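Standup, Tuesday
Yesterday: got the pipeline producing structure tokens again.
Today: sanity-check two examples.
Blockers: none.

Example 1:
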Amino acid sequence: MQDNNHGFIITSERIKLIIPFKWWFPMPYQITHISIEEKDRLVRLFLPRVRYEIKSEIYGCCIKLLADDPVLRDTWQENFYSMSQNIRSHGRIYVFRDPEYPADTVLYDARSRTLFLLNVAYYGWVKSLALSLTGDILEDEHGIFSLHGACVDVGGCGICLIGASGAGKTTQTYGLLADAETRIVSDDWFFARIFGPEILAFGSEKNFYIRQDLEQIWREFGGLMQDREYDRDGRAVADLRWVIGKGRLIPLTTLKTIVVLRRDPALPGAARPLDTPAAQSLFLRQQYFNPHLLVNDAYKTNLREQFLAGLLDRTVVYDVNTTGTPDATQRMIRAIAGISPEA
């Protein structure tokens, strides 16, 4: 492959274009759009190697995983809800290792909604791209949009924690769950839809892909998983119900507040509200804080900008600097949410 210094990589006549990621998303992979003919060639190549075909329900869409790795099969089935094998799939994901391709190769045919993940070892990207594939379908056909962030419910009001990778979304989300009145919709990705004056936020994962260090940061989660159950990236799909109770993992909430987490020493140390123009500018500059979006053409941009306007018109947005300790950040978020700092 040859980089042409503009974010595009030229490989062969089969590849139509590459969607570049901006510098603020240090993602090691790029999404390459391929033709329907190349998709057909890859299907013929990998279909004989398929050992597992698993249909899963991701917020009403049937997404089919095709793979040969039993560990991936088990992790996927713990992560997502199962779906009847009689349902035809809306999107497909082939996950394989192949020496002919570089590490972390991601190929997408938008016409057939087919993804190929080749030599992608990190399960976090597999599941994020599965959710992104679902989002690609939903925003076109149903006016439902993806938000790459966590969502909790406090007293019937939804609070979203969003930010770039490493900003502390996961750490702070699980800290909020120490409060017995806080319930969780999603810890990493949720779907949202405008209904009149409200934004409804929906979860889609059965269990969450958590970090091992959460047990050290928040003692409440100690012993949730055994050391041997974590993968080589120090993560595992875990059923939080064993710790927080079955009734505290809920399918939806009404989104009222957005907390943008940013790790930036130049920002003020206290939480500050953002007006709509400032929040809109921030989301657009940061590409919606979502490096996994599969298609970024003019049509998709128009859809997302319309949704963003509706989202910000119906929510209150706060900017929170996470350069302090996790406890200090947690106190700021709890003050925004109206949760006791001692809970």
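Example 2:
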Amino acid sequence: MYQRPIDSFSVLEYLLSSWEFRVTKNLISVVDDDESVRRTTTLLIESFGFRAATFESAESFLASGHLHDTSCLIVDVQMPGMNGLQLQSHLAAAGCGIPIIFITAYDHKDSRQRAMQAGAAAFLGKPFNDEQLLQTIRSALRGEFGVTKNVISVVDDDESVRRTTTLLIESFGFRAATFESAESFLRSGQLHDTSCLIVDVQMPGMNGLQLQSHLAAAGCGIPIIFITAYDDRESRQRAMQAGAVAFLGKPFSDEHLLQTIRSALVQDKGGTKTT
């Protein structure tokens, strides 16, 4: 009998998906009123090795009987009838802790903030790329978002950098808080809620390196990721020697920032520094 040759990539994908199949029920439910989105998202999910079920409304999902079989829920924000945020509230009130990934063509700050504060795993703008969705689903299934609900604080005097970095952080499933200066961060009361600090090097008033020194002197061990448009060797060396997790030059890629944040969050468990 003919057997298809097995390549190393297939073996790796099989091992990854097999691990996920063992620890989850593997049904990814997609709730979206747009039939084309349901179809393309289903094809994408199934290409990753997961099972998919689709529903044109929140009401049809709730009436389907698939609630207790669903390991992860991908839901549109704006839909006729019960919208995605209302579905999230309904499930929370019922004590249902399914990880929820929101997808939307209308990325409003208020909706994003409300979804993330209520425990969403991620908030992705349409169109999203295949790898971004895969990583988000895997993180949701492995429960990574459940242990990273603390705040990623961003300190940068450039409003456009704060805005884009916040959108990026929240698309990964983390909560974000932004500050225009080191002083405003220190006064904010967010210090003890911050799991990771992303800070610009050069800012008016207290700069990033001075903030690092201030926190160290206060015995505060928040992992720090430096970002800068001016990557000089002396600043990089000083930051890393003082314990920074990473020193990233602007612009940085989405994947680079995600990997760096994850390294920062596990730093106390043996994570490595990124230079």
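Quick observation on example 2: The domain at 148-269 is CATH 3.40.50.2300 (Rossmann fold). The chain has eleven helices and ten strands.
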